[in-house]
Amino acid sequence: MRGVTTPRPDGSPADRGTRVRGTRQAEALSIVLDGLPGFCSAQQIHAELRSRGAHVGLTTVYRHLQVLSEDGRVDAIRDASGETLYRKCRSDTHHHHLTCRSCGRSVEVEGRAVERWAEDVALEAGFTDVGHTVELFGLCPGCSSPGCSSPVSSSPGRDSPVRRS
Known about the structure:
Elements: E1 2-3, H1 24-35, E2 40-41, H2 42-51, H3 58-70, E3 74-78, E4 84-88, E5 96-100, E6 106-109, H4 112-125, E7 136-138, H5 141-144
Parallel strand pairs: 5-7
Antiparallel strand pairs: 1-3, 2-4, 3-4, 5-6
Helix pairs in contact: 2-3
């Protein structure tokens, strides 16, 4: 899985013409995102919307998720196949994800050392307004246990917030 580019350092959204407005589709999407147990694909989110009777096109779902991701209101990661998975952001601060390679469980982690490193590299190169993507993978405690035979999941499991420096 791969993290998707973070918002601007000042927290402002990128300048784009497409914004999520207070439409029925946006409201339905927000309700579905609130109820997701973990990261899900746009297709899974679209299927859930349809099962609830919402008339929202898949293109609209993708467009809204992209804007919500750029605004920092939705977390987005890429799975091993390159598909982007989404969930409602549980933190209003910049963070990264540590994801289990076996079961897909994901936890939020702070990365102060990464932030300092990115700032130093940008400063040395004379760059400003720099964003970054950081990918962290490993095996969760459950999948690290001897005798665990957890298959790689195509739909990552439930996640829980964890804070570490």
